[in-house]
Write a structure and sequence with these properties.
With about 280 residues, the chain is of the alpha+beta class. The chain contains eight helices and ten strands. Strand 1 and strand 2 form a beta hairpin. It is globular, with a radius of gyration of 19 Å. It binds 4-diphosphocytidyl-2-C-methyl-D-erythritol 2-phosphate and adenosine-5'-diphosphate (ADP). The site of 4-diphosphocytidyl-2-C-methyl-D-erythritol 2-phosphate has 17 residues, from strand 2 and helix 5. The site of adenosine-5'-diphosphate has 15 residues, from helix 1 and helix 2. GO terms for molecular function: 4-(cytidine 5'-diphospho)-2-C-methyl-D-erythritol kinase activity; ATP binding. It comes from Andreprevotia lacus DSM 23236. It catalyses: 4-CDP-2-C-methyl-D-erythritol + ATP = 4-CDP-2-C-methyl-D-erythritol 2-phosphate + ADP + H(+).
Length: about 280
Amino acid sequence: MMFSPQDGWQAFAAPAKLNLFLHIVGRRADGYHLLQSVFQLIDLADTLYLRVRADGDVVHHNPLPDVPASQDLIVRAARLLQQETGCTAGVDLGIEKRIPMGGGLGGGSSDAATVLLALNRLWNLQLSREKLMQIGLQLGADVPFFIYGQNAFVEGIGEIMTPLTTPDGFFLVLHPQVHVPTPAIFKADDLVRDTLPITAQAIDYQQTRNDLEAVACRLFPALLPARAALAQHLPTRMTGSGACFFAFSASQNEIARVISRLPNGATVFEAKSLSRHPLYEYAV
Ligand SMILES: C[C@@](CO)(OP(=O)(O)O)[C@H](O)COP(=O)(O)OP(=O)(O)OC[C@H]1O[C@@H](n2ccc(N)nc2=O)[C@H](O)[C@@H]1O
Ligand SMILES: Nc1ncnc2c1ncn2[C@@H]1O[C@H](COP(=O)(O)OP(=O)(O)O)[C@@H](O)[C@H]1O
């Protein structure tokens, strides 16, 4: 093990999210889209390794192949937290990546949120959840949700939360190995931007959808066979701006059965719903 406790490393989970639905209800003056979505935490997770340094440096020990250390959200999260608090301690960082990148699963945002939550404790900053969420929003629209730490009806660009109980169960997540760039989806002329707002108290999931899905499938038709393979077995939806699709079942056996029937070579994950972020208690 590269980051062992004997060497002073501590491990922290960074869970993925699914957007059970995602409606675009408007646009801000700066062009960012206003959304309404239910964000669901799942137990598919990256592992972050942290070790406090006295010299103030932030050092990434195993940068991802396609993300330079200085751009990695975990490094940016640690540096931003130093700036915001004047903290003079530093940190060694390592990562074991399991959440597919650019999949609409919020992996990078969750990694950043876990670093903020863990350092709040390791650097003894005593920051409130609200303050950590404000800092997190500077790193990405999905970061505040992970710091909020419970399943939620999310509005604005991702900063307004209403807690929500969602059914416990199992998700099949299918990664179609197609790269879907988020900006292209939000720029598309045919994106529906005027879905009628709903309220957290009256969600009928049958009446919801992911407004980004039709655009993603039109721009990247290679998504369609993956979607169809899963939709043959269970109701299927895209998460975030793609590329992953997911299906839900209360029965783990049913998810296992569907996985066994998907075409060979498909990249699939089975995940369980989480009701709380594993680091929920780390904000004050
Ligand atoms: C749509 C969601 C739902 O979770 O997708 P995923 O990233 O998880 O797939 C997020 O809100 C994605 O937010 P975020 O992760 O910050 O998006 P980025 O990749 O930084 O955004 C790329 C570009 O998309 C556009 N964009 C993004 C978010 C938003 N609410 N409105 C936008 O118009 C902006 O032009 C932005 O410059
Ligand atoms: N720690 C990180 N993990 C994943 N992606 C990161 C990380 N830091 C920066 N990124 C960048 O953020 C992009 C989006 O990542 P990710 O959060 O995995 O997807 P999504 O926003 O679709 O849920 C990646 O393509 C990568 O360039």
